[in-house]
Amino acid sequence: VLSFIIFICYIASVAASFMMAPLLEFLLALFLFFAYASKLNEKFKGLYWPLTDFLRCVTAAIIYFAISIAAVSKYNDGASKAGGVFGFIATIVYAIDFYITFNDLVTFLKQGSSDSPEGRRSEDENSDSDSD
């Protein structure tokens, strides 16, 4: 929703050249929402979905921060300033989402490493030494 609001602000402003980043981010967020809602993430196991969401959050935060600085400092109309302010808010929101997704990603990777053959081998060795 925030990306759509920023998109509308940039369309109404002199800084219309910045409208593509919020539009693409809105469409990508809509696609990922649809994918999770329709359980596409369970059907397509080859694509690691949390990593996709993680990369989307990182790139969105960086891009929104950059275009918000440019919109606020370069253009003087109200819609550009509003788009810039909403862009800074979106940067904070995506940074929080980045942090949450990163913690989920680390938890998954730690869990995945215990399921690997090397992890099972070390567990077997520990259980052998315990029985001695």
TrEMBL record:
It is found in: Membrane. It comes from Aramus guarauna. This is CKLF3 protein. The keyword Lipoprotein does not apply. Pfam families: MARVEL (PF01284). It comes from the Eukaryota. Its main location: membrane. It is a multi-pass membrane protein. Keywords: Membrane, Transmembrane, Transmembrane helix. Residues 111-132 are annotated as: Disordered. Residues 1-106 form the MARVEL domain. InterPro entries: Marvel (IPR008253), MARVEL-CKLF_proteins (IPR050578). GO terms for cellular component: membrane. The chain crosses the membrane at residues 7-36, 48-72, 84-102.
